[in-house]
Design brief:
55% helix, single chain, 167 residues
Amino acid sequence: MWNRMRAELEPVTTAWLRVTLVIMALISLLAGDAVTLSAQERGKRVYRETCARCHGPTFQGGVHAPTLTGTSFTSVWGSRSDDELFEYIRLEMPPGQGGTLRDAEVREIVALIRLGDAGAPTPVAEDGLASIPVGHTTRFGDREATGLAPVPDALLRHPPSGDWLSC
């Protein structure tokens, strides 16, 4: 009798087990998306607060920092691991303030940069970035960059002898 009942219940039990596993997998996937999204949002916040002044709100780079996307970025970092990028940012960024970011923040920045470099839209610009004064820098204690003047094309084409451009 027990064997007959077991034989009759086994397909039902197996079906319920499969349904339960599928539901658990779906819940896991949905929760993973939520975690990823919040990590990406945290990465955007940290990037806006600590990186965007120099690297630009869309990774385009600026006067004091290189672009974090495209060929310029991949020629330096494309073949390097995320761990190497993590260590560089952790130890060197922001300039003069290396080691001030928490490891979790650095991981979020690395993930955000890698997502942006993969071509995924990663806009981090917000109205707050428009308030960054032109000509200011965070690299040197947020002082105004003074004593700089544009270099005319003629001077670039025909630099004075002995100038570093004439080498």
